[in-house]
Design a protein that fits this description.
The protein has one domain (about 5-64). It starts with a helix and ends with a helix. The radius of gyration is 18 Å and the shape is elongated. Helix content is about 75%, strand content about 0%. By secondary structure, the chain is an all-alpha fold.
Protein backbone atom coordinates (compact mmCIF):
# COMPACT_ATOMS: atom_id res chain seq x y z
CA UNK A 1 0.00 0.00 0.00
CA UNK A 2 1.39 3.40 -0.94
CA UNK A 3 1.51 6.48 1.26
CA UNK A 4 -1.03 8.14 -1.02
CA UNK A 5 -3.43 5.24 -0.50
CA UNK A 6 -2.97 5.36 3.27
CA UNK A 7 -3.57 9.11 3.34
CA UNK A 8 -6.67 8.68 1.19
CA UNK A 9 -8.02 6.10 3.64
CA UNK A 10 -7.24 8.36 6.60
CA UNK A 11 -9.08 11.26 4.93
CA UNK A 12 -12.16 9.02 4.60
CA UNK A 13 -12.27 8.35 8.36
CA UNK A 14 -14.50 10.22 10.79
CA UNK A 15 -12.78 13.13 12.60
CA UNK A 16 -12.50 11.19 15.88
CA UNK A 17 -10.60 8.37 14.17
CA UNK A 18 -8.33 10.82 12.30
CA UNK A 19 -7.53 12.51 15.61
CA UNK A 20 -6.65 9.14 17.15
CA UNK A 21 -4.25 8.45 14.27
CA UNK A 22 -2.69 11.89 14.73
CA UNK A 23 -2.17 11.34 18.46
CA UNK A 24 -0.65 7.91 17.84
CA UNK A 25 1.68 9.35 15.21
CA UNK A 26 2.77 12.10 17.59
CA UNK A 27 3.53 9.44 20.19
CA UNK A 28 5.68 7.53 17.68
CA UNK A 29 7.62 10.70 16.81
CA UNK A 30 8.07 12.06 20.34
CA UNK A 31 11.70 10.96 20.48
CA UNK A 32 12.43 12.97 17.32
CA UNK A 33 10.73 16.18 18.47
CA UNK A 34 12.97 18.57 20.46
CA UNK A 35 11.74 19.06 24.02
CA UNK A 36 11.53 22.86 23.72
CA UNK A 37 9.29 22.49 20.65
CA UNK A 38 7.02 20.05 22.51
CA UNK A 39 6.84 22.48 25.44
CA UNK A 40 5.90 25.31 23.10
CA UNK A 41 3.15 23.24 21.51
CA UNK A 42 1.79 22.36 24.96
CA UNK A 43 1.79 26.07 25.91
CA UNK A 44 -0.13 26.92 22.74
CA UNK A 45 -2.65 24.15 23.44
CA UNK A 46 -3.20 25.55 26.96
CA UNK A 47 -3.46 29.12 25.66
CA UNK A 48 -0.40 30.21 27.65
CA UNK A 49 0.96 32.41 24.88
CA UNK A 50 0.58 35.97 23.66
CA UNK A 51 0.42 37.26 20.12
CA UNK A 52 3.75 38.30 18.64
CA UNK A 53 2.48 41.83 17.95
CA UNK A 54 1.52 42.21 21.62
CA UNK A 55 4.93 40.99 22.77
CA UNK A 56 6.73 43.36 20.42
CA UNK A 57 4.62 46.30 21.62
CA UNK A 58 5.42 45.41 25.22
CA UNK A 59 9.14 45.27 24.41
CA UNK A 60 8.94 48.63 22.62
CA UNK A 61 7.31 50.19 25.68
CA UNK A 62 10.03 48.75 27.90
CA UNK A 63 12.79 50.05 25.61
CA UNK A 64 11.61 53.67 25.73
Amino acid sequence: MSVAEILHQIEALPPKDRWEILEHTRHLLEAEIPENFAQGMAEIARGDVIELDEALKALDVLAT
